[in-house]
């Protein structure tokens, strides 16, 4: 079993996933648009170029998303959860934190804590909350 986070965006999923691919060194392996859906799937014309599904692969990890299908399912910002990234290297934790923080809002600067060699929390420029964690060596 694998838990996979699935994010919803307000029309900017493609830009967000291009950004995440550059931050994490991954690759977008699937991107489909609402306009590619079968004709019997009703949708507003303004949704045709929006992302119906996108998949980012980073090693054996996966992150997926779509743009909110309006007006049926209007976009709501993420509340009460974060995408947590676990890393083995403090330097890599700092690099990824810095990349995600560009244009975003740092909630807790990355640094050493009693539970981790590095930990930091932020909301990126697309409104996605992240927690970057690098545990102390065992």
From TrEMBL:
Gene3D superfamilies: 2,3-Dihydroxybiphenyl 1,2-Dioxygenase, domain 1. Residues 3-132 form the PhnB-like domain. InterPro entries: Glyas_Bleomycin-R_OHBP_Dase (IPR029068), PhnB-like (IPR028973). SUPFAM superfamilies: Glyoxalase/Bleomycin resistance protein/Dihydroxybiphenyl dioxygenase (SSF54593). This is VOC family protein. It comes from Dyella agri.
């Amino acid at each position: 079993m694998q838990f996979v986070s699935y994010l919803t965006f307000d029309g900017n999923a493609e830009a967000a996933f291009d950004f995440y691919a550059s931050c994490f060194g991954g690759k977008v392996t699937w991107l489909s648009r609402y306009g590619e859906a079968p004709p019997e799937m009703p949708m507003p014309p303004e949704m045709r170029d929006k992302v119906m599904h996108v998949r980012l692969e980073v090693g054996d990890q996966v992150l997926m998303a779509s743009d909110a299908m309006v007006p049926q399912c209007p976009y709501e910002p993420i509340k009460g959860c974060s995408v947590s990234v676990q890393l083995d290297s403090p330097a890599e934790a700092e690099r990824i934190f810095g990349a995600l923080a560009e244009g975003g809002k740092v909630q807790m600067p990355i640094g050493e804590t009693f539970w981790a060699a590095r930990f930091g929390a932020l909301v990126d420029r697309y409104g996605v909350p992240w927690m970057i964690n690098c545990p102390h060596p065992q």
